[in-house]
Amino acid sequence: MPLDHASLSKREDLIDAFEHARRMSEDLAAPFTTEDWMIQSMEEASPIKWNLAHTSWFYETFLLAPYGDNYRPFHSDYGFLFNSYYNQVGEMHARPNRGMISRPTCEEVLVYRRAVTDAVATLLRHCSTVKLKEIEGLIALGCAHEEQHQELLLTDIKHGLAQNPIEPSVYGQDKTAPGDADAYKETSSGGWTYFDRASVEIGHRGDGFAFDNEGPAHHVHLRPYGLATRPVTNRDYLQFMGDGGYTDPRWWFSDGWEWVCTEKWSAPLYWREDAKGWSRYTLGGRVPLDLDAPVCHLSYYEAAAFAEWSGFRLPTEAEWENAAVSTSRHGHFLTGGQLAEPTAPEPAAAQSPGGQSAEGLSQLFGSVWEWTASPYVAYPGYRTPKGAIGEYNGKFMSSQMVLRGGSCATPQGHIRATYRNFFPPSARWQFAGLRLARDPD
Known about the structure:
Blueprint: H1 11-29, H2 48-67, H3 78-82, H4 106-126, H5 129-162, E1 192-195, E2 198-202, E3 218-222, E4 225-228, H6 234-242, H7 254-263, E5 271-274, E6 277-282, E7 285-288, H8 300-310, H9 317-324, E8 369-375, E9 401-404, E10 421-423, E11 432-433, E12 437-438
Parallel strand pairs: 8-11
Antiparallel strand pairs: 1-4, 2-3, 4-12, 5-6, 6-7, 8-9, 9-10
Helix pairs in contact: 1-4, 1-5, 2-4, 2-5
């Protein structure tokens, strides 16, 4: 069953959600070879093997060690090898060198994973009701953490395999039919939905699970604005490229233009043009570019440059959340069903206007993460949680930009309208695109 964070109240619900998350990670890793499991193509990415071990270390460190009955760590070296960035827990192996950890072997990491899974399941089944209530929030956090690493597992290995000159195919191709090319030709943005001036409450409220950075809920005053009814497509982005988008500094932030010049950016990540036209690399191999699918693998700098070129802008995260709060989470997410006949996670074109929300907005959730114009900073009244677990989100509230919505590589039950993803503005390897916003004429 997909994880539904709002239902984590009963013992069996907790066990089912936990075991589903653990199985899903291993199912996602299964199509890859043990050689693939070792790849680390850049400092920001981690090997599959490390992701599988780290999510186990998380449960071992924050749940089993403090709450398990006389629990002893599985291996004395694993705390150092698989700690990510929790300085209060202890020292850690250097992040850029995670791909050098050839030992423990992949098989030994799986043994470690399954030992931790069994230990957590045993704790959940046999602990007292009082202890269960105490650890319920940690289980929900652990499942959400595992889901984050499921997405990272896919985006990180995609970047790694893309460095291979034979461009391997691991998954089958998505059989989703191309979208209706005439459905969204009203403007380059596909039409607009407008919102009046209002004082709105954003941020998480209620009893369901949320990360600490999603709160506290607070009021924000919004001026009237318009939001594009769909994300920017590959067809739209090709117009920007054809108009010299990557050669004209007028559209770029200074830092972004420096990245263009230094890294020789000339198209989104994984794109290539040859005699047959434009194509993109996927985990199912190289495929022709679907012109009506949302453009993805863009940095914030590229998204902002496109918005500037188009004469519009990126929405703030408050504008995005206000538009999305009443929209159902229907999208092209990663789901458990995909694993029975795995396909390469890639954003799909909208099938028809029938999939829109009541406000006329399409593909707000799933498909691509959408860059916003908002820096990742604390909400008013935010306080970092005490202890090492407080290092999960708060310490990164600097030099990052917020994305909203979830992608085709995001587990389906992981997303809420209040969810705040964040990455450095130069990051391109995530399934990130954009939706335009505008001010009234």
